[in-house]
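S.,

As promised, the magnesium ion run. Input:
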Amino acid sequence: MPATVIVGTQWGDEGKGKFTDLVAREMDLVVRYQGGHNAGHTLVVGGESFALQLVPSGILYDDITTVIGNGVVVDPRVLITEMDMLEARGVDTSRLRISGNAHLILPYHQELDKVSERWLGKAKIGTTKRGIGPAYADKASRVGIRVQDLLDPSIFRQKLEAALREKNAVLAKVYNQLPLDADEICAEYLDVCAPRIAPLITDAVGLVHEALESGKNVLLEGAQATFLDLDHGTYPYVTSSNPVAGGACTGAGVGPTQIDRVIGITKAYVTRVGSGPFPTELDDEVGNMLVDRGHEFGTNTGRRRRTGWLDAVMLRQAARVNGLSELAVTKLDVLDTLDTIKMCVAYEADGERYHHMPYHQSVLHKVTPVYEELPGWRTDLTGMTERSQLPREALDYVAFMEEQVGVKVTLVGVGPGREQFLRFDG
Ligand code: GDP
Ligand code: IMO
Ligand code: MG
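Predicted complex:
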C-alpha cells in the first residue's frame, strides 16, 4: 500500500495530532518525519488530553508501530520523559522505534538557541529554544552526532569532545557563557539515556519499506507546517527542517511514488506563534475571541498564539507545494458565535492583486488582505457527528474554502475530542 502524509498548511498547531490519531486507526505504522520537541501535538481521548512532542501521534493504539524517522532531531532526555509520562498513564510505548540516523539534540544546541535569540534582540525568530535550529545546522555542517552513536560510547565521546572544542569557544568568546563539560554530558547521554534508548534504535527505512511491501498502511506525520518550512515558509521566521510533504520523503526514506495521499490540515482560521509576517492577523476583539474560544496558547511553550482570518492565498500555496489530495479542517466550532466570518481570497500591494503567494517577502510584509464576508451560523457545532446536521452557513463556509483552494475537504473537526469530527467524503 502507498503511504499517506499529514502536513500542516499554515504556521503550525492546526490539529495535526488530532487527525493523525484519527487517521491512524486504519494504519499499521505511524512515522514522524521531521522536527523535534518544538512540536506539541494534542490528542484528546475519552476526555483525557495527551500532549506529544516527539512520540508519533499513533502511540495510543496498541497494534500500531510508531517510528521516529531519520529526519527528526531527538533530545533523548525529553523522549524518555515523554515515554515515562505515557507509561504512567497506561499507554504502551513498547512498539516505539527510533531511526539510528536521526540526529541528537545536545545541551549546547539548546544553549546556542537561547543565546542566539537573545543576541538577535528585536529581530529574534521567537524559537521554542529547544535547540532545533542549531541541531539541524550541525547536521548540515556534517558535525552532528546521531542516535546510533549512543550505541558506541567511545565514538560518542570522541565526536562530543570534537564538537565541544568549537561549541565551548563560541559559547565563551562570543556569548560570554560558561563552557559545557564532556563528562557531564556523557554521564547523561551514555549512562542514563543510552540504556533506555538502545533497544528502540532500528533501521527505520527498512521497517517502513517492509511494511509498504507487505501491503501495510503507513502514515507519515509532519510537525510544524508549510509556512514554517525552511524552503517554503516565511524565511527567516521558520523552523530549520522541511515540514512540507516532500520532507516526508527525505525524513522517512520513501520515494514520491510511494505516497498517494497527502492530507493538509488547516484550522478554520489562522494562528501563528513567534515572529514573522501574518497578513490576516487580527488585533481586535475577534482576535481575542479566537484566542479564548480556541484556547490558543502553545501546547509546548504556553505562549499566546497570534490569530487571524482564514487565508486562502496561503492554502493555495500549501496545495501546490505539498501536492495536497485533500484538506482536513479543524476548529470550525471556534467560529460558532460569529455573526459574519471573513476569508482572505487575495492580497493587494502597490496597486497589484495577488492570488498566489508573492515570492518576494517584502511584498508579503506590506500586503492588504482582500476579504469575502460570509454569514456565520451562530449554532453550537460541538455535538454534531454528521455532515447533514451542519447549518447551511457552515456548509457554505466549507464549500467556499474548497472552491477558493481547489482541494476537497474530507474531514471537519468540531471539537478537540477524538470523536468530534464530521466526514465530508462519503
Ligand atoms: P498540532 O500541533 O497541529 O498537532 O496542533 P496542537 O495540538 O498544537 O493544537 C491544536 C489544538 O486544537 C489542540 O488543543 C487540540 O486539542 C485542539 N483541536 C483540534 N481539533 C479541534 C477542533 O476541531 N475543535 C476544537 N475546538 N479544538 C480542536
Ligand atoms: P507543531 O508541530 C507552532 C515556530 C516557533 C518559531 C519558529 C522556529 O505543534 O505545529 P524552532 O524552535 O522550530 O526553531 O522555532 O517555529 N514553531 C512552531 N509553531 N507549532 C509548532 O509545532 C512549532 N514548532 C516551531 O514558534 O516561530
Ligand atoms: Mg502544536
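The two ends are 21 Å apart (CA to CA). The chain has a mean pLDDT of 97.

- D.
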